[in-house]
Design brief:
mainly beta; 6 helices; about 450 residues; 6-stranded mixed β-sheet; 26 strands; 7-stranded mixed β-sheet
């Protein structure tokens, strides 16, 4: 765990007039699958005036503590009729109503987490035009024994007041797109994935006056060892927006900064996740199951804005460069199709050695990135889902002057690995497909269904 931020103890700051909004699963029968993402919709109550959420926390049913991995609240902003209220369904499947594919995560709790208190000058707004109309509570259930007798009424509890605070909060999610293009080789003591919130995105999405981050949450699954958010301005590193050098999967907290962190237009935010896969005999892909991996972070900031999501991924045409015996002309690098050898097949069946692991690590530090940049209502900024050059001013982190901090980092190669065909010709390989559309915790994706069915 990180020892840099003090634990919160602010229960005495909650006014006696505060009220609670309890958004709990209505005694849901947990499906008998190893991994389930369950979504439950709640229409927001009608208030006579705007309110401010000042605290949130999880209610986890005692007997289900081994089964509830995380709970996320997503805000919907469209006007929907009452037929969408109190719907329960498996997230990211065809049964998920498209009207409820809401993208703005406003509260995140994960295993080991505690109640989160907003700073005294900040609240999250509800109850007025432009505020959430529906909340979707997503619960990640782990059910490795595939039991069919689990009932659950866990969820999130929000504390709100009608005395408005000076500032209103927004939430920004950054990181690696949750999909199989997130690749971690097996039997590797340290492998680092690097996702970038590009300056091309922040220069458009961050308000002119900038935003002030006051809290953060970091998230990987079981292979994660260390996570850090690095901040760059004018191509120079200016500090970090949260780090945990002793990350513990079973102790995931939303933490406040001792001092707020300013994010300005054009800043580049880099999320580095360090993994240890020495206990894995096969490659680990990104995905929803805890057997798969993630590399995500959330930044709570003010003043609120439309900016909600900024992520990146590496196109499969570059991932397969890690293997010498691959002919790019014979590999399909778009979404998988029957009767075609896909990049996913190549990586799944690869025989990893020191050279291919080193090559894949180098690809993480040099290959072009497919960037994602969106508002809280899924409006895409220019440059969204397009390839961008990796920002080469992002260099391995220098060693710390603090003798108590043992720095580890990564090494950038001089160039990307080349295919055999490229060594005999200057022509660049042509991709047989288009880039996979990155998806996040929300959004229907064929990969989500594919990866969950394999667990």
């Amino acid at each position: 765990m990180s020892l840099l931020e003090p634990a919160q103890d602010k229960s005495s700051t909650i006014p006696a007039t505060a009220k609670q909004l309890r958004l709990l699963n209505p005694n849901v029968t947990v499906p008998n699958d190893a991994t389930t993402y369950w979504c439950q919709s709640f229409k927001m109550p009608v208030f006579d005036r705007k309110q401010h959420i000042i605290k949130f926390g999880a209610f986890v049913q005692k007997e289900n503590r081994d089964h509830v991995h995380h709970i996320v609240a997503y805000a919907c902003y469209e006007k929907l009729n009452d037929s969408f209220n109190n719907l329960g369904y498996t997230c990211y499947t065809p049964e998920m109503p498209k009207e409820l594919m809401c993208r703005h995560s406003i509260a995140i709790w994960a295993i080991g987490g505690e109640d989160f208190y907003f700073p005294d000058n900040v609240g999250f707004p509800i109850g007025s035009p432009g505020d959430p109309t529906y909340i979707i509570i997503e619960t990640h259930f782990d059910n490795p024994q595939k039991r069919s007798d689990i009932k659950d009424n866990s969820g999130l509890v929000f504390t709100y007041i009608d005395t408005l605070r000076p500032m209103e909060a927004g939430v920004l999610e950054i990181g690696q797109s949750v999909s199989p293009v997130h690749v971690i080789p097996p039997k590797t003591k340290q492998f680092v994935t690097i996702s970038v919130c590009l300056g091309n995105c922040t220069s458009q999405a961050v308000p002119v006056q900038g935003i002030s981050a006051f809290a953060y949450m970091l998230h990987t699954h079981r292979l994660g060892q260390k996570i850090r958010i690095r901040q760059f301005r004018n191509e120079k590193e200016i500090g970090n927006l949260g780090r945990d050098d002793k990350y513990d999967f079973n102790y995931q907290l939303t933490k406040t900064f001792p001092n707020e962190k300013k994010i300005e237009r054009g800043d580049t935010l880099v999320l580095e996740c360090f993994y240890d896969s020495t206990d894995r005999n096969t490659v680990t892909f990104g995905g929803l199951s805890t057997k798969e991996e993630m590399c995500l972070a959330w930044l709570y900031y003010y003043p609120k804005s439309e900016f909600s999501y900024c992520a990146s991924e590496i196109h499969p045409k570059n991932l397969i460069r890690a293997f010498k015996n691959v002919d790019p002309k014979t590999v399909y690098t778009g979404a998988p199709e029957d009767n075609k050898t896909s990049w996913y097949d190549v990586i799944s069946n690869a025989k990893w050695d020191d050279e291919s692991v080193k090559a894949m690590q180098g690809i993480q530090t040099l290959a072009d990135l497919v960037g994602t940049c969106e508002t809280r209502t899924r409006v895409e900024y220019p440059g969204h889902n397009m390839e961008h050059k990796f920002p080469l001013f992002v260099q391995p982190m220098a060693a710390s002057s603090d003798p108590c901090i043992k720095e580890t980092s990564w090494v950038r190669p001089a160039a990307l690995p080349t295919f055999v065909s490229e060594q005999s010709t200057t022509a660049k390989p042509k991709s047989a497909g288009v880039s996979l559309v990155p998806f996040r915790f929300v959004g229907v994706c064929v990969w989500a269904v594919l990866m969950l069915s394999s667990t």
